[in-house]
Amino acid sequence: MTDAWEIDPAYELYVGRWSRLVAAQFLQWLPAGPGGAWCDVGCGTGALAHTVLRTAEPARVVGVEPSERFAAAARAATDDPRFEVRPGTAESIPAEDGEFDRMVSALVLNFVPHPIEGLAEMRRVTRAGGTVAGYVWDYADGMQMIRVFWDAARALDEAAANLDEGVRFPLCRPQPLRDLLDAAGLTGVEVDPLDVPTVFTDFDDFWRPFLGGQGPAPGYCMSLSAERRAELRGLLDARVRRDETGRIALTARAWAFRGTVSR
Q1: How many CB atoms lie within 10 A of CB 70?
Q2: Which of 244, 239, 245, 247 is CA-nearest to residue 204?
Q3: Cα–Cα distance, 158 to 154 (Å, whole number)
Q4: Which of 1, 42, 209, 242 is geometrically suited to a Cys-Cys bond with 14, CB 3.0 to 4.6 A?
Q5: Entry pTM
Q6: Can you give the residue ranges of the Methyltransferase type domain (predicted)?
């Protein structure tokens, strides 16, 4: 089973809306003055790039995205003339050496087949003294909607353990992130947590995003037979806690990372 990232409304419902909340915190955490050229690698539907345009006063923002569906959604969501999207990946960025002042990525680094090569490419297109930064979900613990999903899936299916992002992506922890950025030659490396609320109005609001097939957990969910999927739904329904109004109030933690390019 591969990770699917093609259907933009399903992605937005699943994690895009929460990534937008993290993006605002991330940009407050990231030192950056007005002006400058930004690049958002793996820009998806534009959660981070659009937040940069609204809040960071950039001279321009270039999104790099391999999925044409996501790229089209990112373009359609803004008419800001400072924004463009180019086809490409973290390991093959269509840009000149040192073209950007700020190189950022949201929920991307752990999906890059060779993260050290991806960071080397991000470093290449960032000027000396510029910043390479981003964030990834804390799959092992702090991204609670995904954590509770896999805990239930693993209780019903031993094979689900190998698909659990907390297992698949050991990179998404503070020390491995620091080690990777150091190995990529970035200096002044920092890694910090960013927490945002993920509040669901009821269980259906919580469950529906897992039916969109976008990403590892929804992909696994939709690979199950109807009977097995109903069993998983029932276990999750019994496990998640509600408040007195029936809402499910969880937290999503991302690990933000940054480093400086020195030549």
Answers
A1: 23
A2: 247
A3: 5
A4: 209
A5: 0.92
A6: 40-132
pLDDT tens digits for 106-158? 999 999 999 999 999 999 999 999 999 999 999 999 999 999 999 999 999 99
The residue count for the chain: 263
Q: Give the sign of the dihedral formed by CA 45, CA 29, CA 84, CA 41.
A: negative
DSSP 8-state secondary structure symbol assigned to residue 4: P
Phi, psi of 60 (to 5 degrees): -160, 160
Alpha helices in 30-143 (DSSP H): 47-55, 68-76, 115-124
What is the rounded distance in angstroms from the CA atom of residue 90 to the CA atom of residue 86? 12
Q: Are 30 and 95 in contact (CB under 8 A)?
A: no
> Residue ranges per domain, the chain?
8-260
Degrees, nearest 5: CA angle 149-26-87: 80
> In the 3-class helix/strand/coil scheme, how is 121-155 assigned residue by residue?
HHHHCEEEEEEEEEEEECCCCCEHHHHHHHHHHHH
- Dihedral pair phi/psi, residue 165, rounded to 5°: -60, -30
Q: What is the CATH number of domain 8-260?
A: 3.40.50.150
